[in-house]
Design a protein that fits this description.
By secondary structure, the protein is α/β, with parallel strands linked by helices. It has helices spanning 14-25, 44-54, 56-67, 82-93, 133-146, 172-187; strands at residues 2-6, 29-31, 75-80, 99-103, 119-126, 149-156. Helix 4 links the parallel strand 3 (75-80) and strand 4. The radius of gyration is 15 Å and the shape is globular. The chain starts with a strand and ends with a helix.
């Protein structure tokens, strides 16, 4: 598979490159665009402030420009937290998208969002301060109405970005379970 993997508000950290390498080792081609142009952050608050400073429209433009040269190949869009929200937006707008792998995040859906059976897999902590139960229920229903084929995996007790070994949220057991399931999902696409 051809995978476009977007980073979180922490920026393009070593954990994102390690995840891309894990995917490459499984036989996938992976791109990791740097939407923050080299900046990384030590706290979610700093990263969110930088995200807000750049602005949603500019970040979406950067993401579209990163994906555009490869979209004819049929991409799987993937991302971590903020990057998952970015991946979701692009996948729902790309009729050639092969799949959507969301790690630690989701995004609003446009009311007219429509896909034809797009395979979607979400991995998220339980509980997660950024992805509350009520939000996830509404998101799941909206994705279903849009035509997506959605699977959701929850990890009790894990922190928000539990797959990043460089952060306090890291949970090795949940991270390894996520990668096992995610790699299986990618094999089905």
């Amino acid at each position: 598979m051809n995978i476009m993997l977007f980073h979180s508000t922490f920026g393009l950290r070593p954990a994102v490159e390690a995840a891309a390498d894990r995917l490459r080792d499984a036989g996938h081609t992976v791109w990791t665009p740097d939407l923050f142009e080299g900046k990384t952050f030590d706290t979610v608050e700093e990263g969110m402030a930088h995200r807000d400073e750049i602005g949603k429209d500019e970040l979406l433009k950067r993401a579209v420009l990163a994906a555009a040269p490869y979209s004819d190949r049929g991409l799987v869009y993937a991302g971590f937290s903020f990057g998952a929200a970015t991946a979701q937006t692009l996948a729902l707008g790309d009729e050639k998208a092969k799949g959507l792998l969301l790690l630690h995040g989701t995004s609003d859906l446009a009311e007219n969002a429509s896909v034809d059976g797009l395979p979607v897999q979400l991995h998220v902590a339980e509980p997660d301060p950024f992805e509350t139960d009520d939000w996830l229920t509404a998101w799941y229903l909206q994705m279903g109405r849009a035509g997506a084929d959605v699977e959701v995996y929850r990890y009790a007790g894990a922190g928000h970005l539990y797959t990043d070994p460089g952060l306090d949220d890291y949970d090795e057991e949940a991270a390894e379970a996520t990668w096992r399931v995610a790699l299986g999902f990618l094999e089905t696409l």
